[in-house]
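Severity: low
Component: inverse-folding endpoint
Summary: output formatting inconsistent between runs
Steps to reproduce: submit the following structure tokens with default settings.
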């Protein structure tokens, strides 16, 4: 990096880094490079005022990591607020009705969730769940729903 900085104006270098990071963020929308773009912006301003290279790099790292640490969780919560859960994610926490007794030792059991029939297993190997019982989907392993009776503590 110092070789590039010796042949190029540091302000131009940080501007190029900033533009690249913003373009990557726009292309991916992953909320990953935007924090480093903030660091590059601060480093660009520092370079414009003629601060030494090690201070520019330090500012870049400190600002980037600070933004990443403090604002990313808030931004992710805000941007994922309206996310619609689909496929397997949509099964977690839903109620299902046991259509075939669930017995992990025999490897049998089926439930109906939202009109669709799924293979199911009990969250506890020692628990048999009779047909007609309402259960809650706790997780999904492969194509099997792992369920627990609704009246048990979750």
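Observed output (run 2 of 3):
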């Amino acid at each position: 990096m110092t070789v590039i900085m010796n042949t190029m104006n540091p302000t131009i270098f940080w501007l190029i880094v900033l533009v690249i990071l913003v373009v990557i963020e726009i292309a991916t929308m992953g909320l990953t490079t935007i924090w480093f773009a903030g660091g590059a912006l601060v480093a660009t301003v520092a370079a414009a005022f003629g601060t030494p290279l090690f201070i520019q790099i330090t500012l870049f790292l400190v600002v980037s990591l600070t933004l990443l640490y403090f604002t990313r969780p808030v931004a992710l919560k805000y941007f994922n607020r309206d996310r619609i859960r689909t496929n397997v994610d949509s099964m977690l926490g839903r109620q299902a009705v046991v259509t075939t007794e669930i017995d992990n030792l025999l490897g049998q059991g089926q439930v109906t969730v939202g009109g669709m029939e799924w293979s199911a297993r009990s969250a506890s190997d020692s628990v048999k769940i009779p047909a007609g019982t309402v259960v809650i989907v706790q997780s999904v392993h492969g194509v099997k729903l792992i369920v627990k009776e609704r009246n048990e503590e979750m």
